[in-house]
Amino acid sequence: MIIALIMAGGLGTRLNSNIEKPLFKFNNKHLIDYVLENISLSDLIDKIVVAVSSNTLNTKNYLINNHFACFNNSFNDYDKFYLNTPGKGYLNDLSYILSIFEKISKNNIILIINADLPFIKSDIIDYVIAKYLEFDKPSLSVQIPVEVYKKYNVSYNNYEFNGFVPSGLNILKSENSIQEQTDLIMDDIRLAFNLNSIDDVDIAYKIMDYLI
């Protein structure tokens, strides 16, 4: 089974908005709706789980109003869920989530995507999953050449290492453990463009034809 996990529990303070980041609107559409739509159009995703926290209670209510079930309910009865996390940072929350997933099965595949990556379309998602299935390691990280960020003047918050920046799109097995990783290098601007700040939003509007 392939589960899409959307990380939507962070504070998102750099947008300088009183609106929770997943509910921030770009081009009159919530960021979370872009991500949900892109995942829903994938041919390979079986279930969707959105990780929320006390930082994103409005996002949680938005999901409930859109018929997302609580993850405490039977996993087999629904296709889309919200999951409450501690909201103590990306890595801590991910560890918490994987410890829950591994109780169901350690053999499921988890595609992890941040809620501020609205331009990663289903074609990219399916390509990345297909490449993952070709590899023999349990973990995959999609990396972007730093030149892509520089070409479009997109921020990458000094996360660059050896000329590459993590995109925020990853795949793991459903096990809370250190997993051997394969890096998949892609130079698609849609992978590089997460909306972290108002500057990012302004740039996205300027190059929207490349993104949507």
In short:
The mean pLDDT is 91. The protein is built from 8 helices and 10 strands. With 212 residues, it is of the alpha/beta class.
Major sheet characteristics: 8 strands, mixed
Give the termini separation.
29 Å
- The helical percent reads 25-40%
Largest beta sheet: strand ordering: 5-6-4-1-7-9-8-10
Shape: globular
- Return the CATH class: Alpha Beta
Classified in CATH, the superfamily is Spore Coat Polysaccharide Biosynthesis Protein SpsA, Chain A
How large is the share of residues in beta strands? Answer: 15-25%
Low-confidence stretches: none
Number of helices: 8
Q: What is the number of strand segments?
A: 10
Instruction: Average the pLDDT over all residues and give the rounded result.
Output: 91
SSE order: EEEHEHEEHEHEHEEHHH
Please compute the radius of gyration using only Cα atoms: 16 Å
Return the domain count: 1
CATH topology name: Spore Coat Polysaccharide Biosynthesis Protein SpsA, Chain A
**Coarse structural class:** alpha/beta
CATH architecture: Alpha-Beta Complex
Describe this structure in words.
The chain has 212 residues and is an alpha/beta fold. It has a single domain (2-211), classed as Alpha-Beta Complex (Spore Coat Polysaccharide Biosynthesis Protein SpsA, Chain A), CATH 3.90.550. Helices cover 33% and strands 24% of the residues. The protein is built from eight helices and ten strands. The protein has helices at 31-40, 57-65, 90-104, 122-134, 146-152, 189-192, 198-206, 208-211; strands at 2-7, 25-26, 29-30, 47-52, 69-70, 80-84, 109-114, 139-145, 164-173, 181-185. An eight-stranded mixed beta sheet has the order 5-6-4-1-7-9-8-10, sandwiched between helices. A two-stranded antiparallel sheet has the order 2-3.
